[in-house]
User: What shape does this take?
Amino acid sequence: MEKNNLTKDQLYKISHNLYAIKDKLEQYLSRRTNELFDLEDKIILYDLTNTYFEGRMKKSKLAKFGRSKEKRKDAKLIVLASVINQEGFLKYTNIFEGNMADSKTLETIIDSLSKQTTFVNRRPTVVMDAGISTDDNLKMLKAKGYNYMCVSRSNLKAYKADTTSKPVQITDKRKQPIELMKVKVDNDDDHYLWVKSKTKALKENSMNGLLSQRFEEGIQSINEGINKKGGTKKLNKVFERSGRLKQKYPSVHKYYDINIQDDGKGTATAIRCEHKKGEYPDKKAGIYFLRTTLDETRESTLWSIYNIIREIESTFRVLKTDLDLRPIYHKTDEASMAHLNLGLLAYWLVSTIRFQLKQKGFTHGWSERVRIMNTQKCVSTSVGNIEDKVITIRQCTEPIQNAKQIYQLLNFKSVPFYRKNSVVPPTEIFKNNSS
Assistant: This one.
């Protein structure tokens, strides 16, 4: 089919046809990439994201109002669940309703994944974030024979250092120091890794300082309302205002003692807040715990396994916009699913390029690779001659050195094409025959 004869509707029809064979395509691509690059899928990442609609989607069965990661409370959502191996290749994807809780999707995906892949006899380790790693989900994974690794949903309090190992210090990709120490928790068979990041601590301290300041200003505002004419003085209303303030700042209010004074007749006279003695957020800043069923002796190995999720999430986050996964402008569920499927098929190409470059030592992030390749341009110049013909000249610019390096690593030509000339005759216009 000639490019000039290709219509938008025909392209949309192709996307619908591809979505009709989505499961078969995923199975084939999963198997083929494993064969091409000799992959074993020992570790898989379970990731959830949502995308919003630019439209009301009244007749949609999937689009629902939910918790938007883009803070779009005005738009309906759908949830995209994806399983990705440690090399960044997709293994399985599914679409859920927009109001589906993250933690309720895991068992459905695991069961579907077992049926569609070769995981039945060889269970991989599942890596996930804290939003998915509820106690029920962890019990489910254990019951089905899966190992797992996740961030502990709560900060451990009653733990002790593992005497069989020593604390170690490593550096992350940005050369920032990370302290690691294996710890034990009584009456718990899981293994825990204490992690402290100085960079994370600085960020949390800055955030906690700002939130503490706003919380104290909120208490001061309530107190001013008590003391001014026409302000909120009723005791029950003051309790309501302080309760809403606590709800607004859940991470810092626990470090304060709040004292409300009243006259014994249902009228508040003052409200004060003071820091609890010995309770300061700075002491816990930058500290979190990894939880796993893996009995690994080296702390750095556990950290590197978990770090896979950070690297892949970073890449996937960029691609959600680059591949037009959000927002969605289609009006029907079928068209929306076909649109998302095209983006995911494009991600297979991205993953292949990313993996090949990484294998050859080119470790730049995806955004940087796109920036480098965007420096090479294709210039098209069209002019009309005296015979009403359109003469078009297309030419590629010379790539910069970094772009040449990418071409060489992928065994591509550094210039996709050289100068091309084309002459298009004028279009013949026929009058309608009215007879």
